[in-house]
Amino acid sequence: MDSALGEQLSLPLEAPLQVAHLVSSGGFYGLERMLLEHCQHAPGRHRVLLLAGPDELVARFQAAGVALTRCPDLLSLWRAVDDPRMRPSLLNGHGFKGLIYGWLAAVRFGLPLVTTQHGFTPRNRKQRFYTWLSLRLCRAPQVRSVVCVANSIARLHSAAGVREAKLQVIPNGLPPPPERDFVRPPQAPAAPLIGFVGRLSAEKGPDLFVELAIRLCRQHPELHAVLLGDGPQRQALATRIEAAGLSARILLPGYQDDMAAWLHALDVLVISSRTEGTPMVLLEAMQAGVPVASFAVGGIPDVISHGDSGLLAPSGATDHLAAAVDSLLQDAGLRQRLADSARLAQLARYHLPAQAGRWLQLYRDAVGG
User: Could you say which of 16, 247, 268, 305 is the most buried, measured as most Cβ atoms within 10 Å of its Cβ?
Assistant: First the structure.
């Protein structure tokens, strides 16, 4: 780490702020990745109060040196927040449950509350209720600031009556990449390869990726595709791929510990999500120099400029997205030009150390507001 960056990131450790993050998690996905790196690199002394989550997530945070306490119910949360050895200066609630429990703790202990809104997936009645309640809770006086990872999320809050003065847009960012040589994973075929990275669930659109991959594999006999991740749609996706006779060319290797090596093996990253905030894998691809073709959903159009740093298709328009991927596969010069532009954009606007000052000021304002 260079000395200037080291000095910047060491400043929070000398500050009196103690930030407690409240989150409920199903695994290590984009939100959890952002939170872990925020705790490691963003200003403030950080502690995670885990309302629900698997043991593997706990182990990952603890291995990274991030303090984490399980709080499976309100009583354990009260004890953790009120512990005089680690009493926080403020709370940061992530997601619906983090916001709800954070608001209850803020009311009980008179603490300021920040909420980080990573996006909404209101695909059923329960999720629509959660979205409605989250938006309205953000108007409560205990919520000092609402941090949205994309402009589209901020617009939802504004339309729901959240004061503009509360709203901050701080997109996800990445730390500097590690210095390492990437070895192509043994499972990655030595052939043109397109990929999907994410949870295999409806909002991420892995089914749309599979339909796109089937079409392109039939057009290009040498092409392979891979879905990196796991989730509830895995078996249905495997059945569809087998029915198409493409099980040898559209791969489902599951979640991979070394996602970075797989990312560097891709010729094109495809983001087929139905809804998004600012996906971490998009920023990772930009940093790694992997060209991206994506649906223009959520915060993605804030990050990708069509034709300059990636290719965008209308939401759900699989034909358009397949055509974008096809054009990238057939034009190495276009892939290189988009990748070079995207790498510069990520460094300029989505670089975690450069965002440190914004988070520090936001936390200070919340405590003093």
Answer: 268
| Phi, psi values for residue 164, rounded to 5° | -60, -35
- CA dihedral (304, 309, 313, 314) in degrees, to 10, reads 30
**pLDDT single digits (tens) 315-348:** 999 999 999 999 999 999 999 999 999 999 999 9
DSSP assignments along 90-135, one per residue: EEEEEHHHHHHHHHHHHHHHT--EEEEE------SHHHHHHHHHHH
Compute how many other C-beta atoms are within 10 angstroms of the C-beta atom of residue 229.
23
pLDDT (tens digit per residue) in 208-238: 999 999 999 999 999 999 999 999 999 999 9
Which CATH number characterizes residue 49's domain? 3.40.50.2000
Rounded distance, CA 202 to CA 132, Å? 21
Residues 172 and 204 in one domain: no
Count: domains in the chain: 2
Do the beta carbons of residue 118 and residue 277 sit within 8 Å? yes
Q: Are 360 and 114 in contact (CB under 8 A)?
A: no
Does one domain contain both 363 and 232? no
Looking at the whole model, is its pTM more than 0.85? no
User: Beta-carbon neighbour count of residue 232 at 10 Å?
Assistant: 10
Which residue's entry shows tokens 């339909």? 211
**Strand ranges across the sheet with 292-295:** 250-251, 224-228, 193-197, 268-271, 292-295, 311-313
Q: Indicate whether 264 and 137 sit together in one domain.
A: no
For residues 176 and 191, what is the distance between their CA atoms, to the nearest angstrom? 29
Q: Which of 303, 305, 301, 295 is nearest to 273 (CA)?
A: 295
Tell whether 309 and 172 lie within a shared domain. no
- Considering the chain, what is the average pLDDT of its residues? 91
DSSP secondary structure string for all residues of 138-152: TTSTTEEEEEESSHH
Chain centroid, CA 231 distance in Å: 16
Parent domain of 44: 15-176+351-368
Within 13 Å, how many C-alpha atoms sit on residue 216's CB side? 31
Is pLDDT above 80 for 16?
no
State the Cα–Cα distance between residues 232 and 234, nearest whole angstrom: 6
E strands, the chain, where?
Answer: 18-24, 45-52, 67-70, 90-94, 113-117, 143-148, 167-169, 193-197, 224-228, 250-251, 268-271, 292-295, 311-313
